[in-house]
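Subject: Protein record for review, amino acid sequence with backbone structure tokens
Concerning: The relation between a protein's sequence and the shape of its backbone.
How to read it: Take the token row as a discrete description of the fold.
Enclosed: The protein record, placed directly beneath this head.
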Amino acid sequence: MHLCQRCVSVLRLSSILHNFAYVQNMPAISQRLYSRIPALSRPNVHLELKRSSQRNMERRRCGLMRYFCDLRASLSHGEPKRCVPNQTEREESSPIPYENPDLHHAGKTSAPLFDDQTVIDLDAAPRRAPFEEISDEEAIQISVPSLLPPSSVTLRDYVDKSETLSKLVQLGVNLWKLEQRPNVGSMLVRLDFQADVAPRLLFLKDLGLEDTQLGPVLTKNPFILSEDLENLEARVSYLKSKKFSAETVASMVYKAPYLLNFSVKRLENRLQFFQQRLGLSSQKTRDVLSRLPRLLCGSLEPVKENLKVCELEFGFQENEIQHMITKVPKVLTASKRKLTQIFDFVHNTMGVPHTLIAKFPQILNTKFLRIRERHMFLEYLGKAQYDPSQPNYISLDRLASLPDEAFCTEVASATLEDFERFQKTM
């Protein structure tokens, strides 16, 4: 039986690893035996076990050192070396068993290090030339270590070795936000920058996005990098066919990046829904969607619910609802609880009729605390007048939109310190 030098190294390495594993496990074996010995006799036995373990480990190390020296000499002279050591080396390297009946009870016995029943005569095999051709089977079996870490809980470990991640960081993408989302980190690691990322970045640039806008867009919607380029172009072409200008489309994509993940059929259904449900013209529908493009991406249930609330609970007319949506599209996506709380306070407490609320719908998009504090301050000063036909009329627009300092000087005719002191009494 003749084996090459590579096979010889594999056979020898298995025996060496077995020998080394036994040496490494000697302290653990001694500790388990020590735990089974009665407490009165532990000190002497512990010293004997420790000395025996140290002698065994030292003999093993000496045997391994002699073995590697002989192996190096045999490989340098091209002479085969026996895989089985002689009787003297086996006796020196074999462990000295400790005479303890609990040893057999624990079931921990040392296995023989070498199989002395077989002696393999190996012929020296010539080494391969550096430029020698190999077969396809041998080439398939060659394993190349990956440059990327096999697994990690953060994308930080991949940035230095991944061109895609390093380029995304330079663009301003927040990887710490993306790695918290499921399956996004593994998707980014698998992407090739030249084949997958670069063409889509050029597409976004041609769409009209600035360099500083690419990072926020990809942070919100990294799945643009995995979308088919033809589908992205088809969706943009559809929006332009509906008379959305190029600047408007770019602004919509920046405000709602998930717009590019919707199919053309879905975009068409959304446009038809808003135009039919709101009863607006094509131009006004485009104006509402361009100012709030996430209406095309989000769920339609909040929109339907708010429309019913405005019509059935608040009592607005259809034309009033259309006017409010045209002025403030966020009324469609606002929280129902917030709308109800503000409308109840403005209509029932402040006494503002539906017509004035519909005329100044921005009041429904203001913080409730601001409206309540300012109204109570004006009421304290005796200036809470919201009827346009009365003197000292205060419009809802000025009540909601002016900053505190301008509100105090222009509307309440007071100082900012007076308003702050009044806030502390509430």
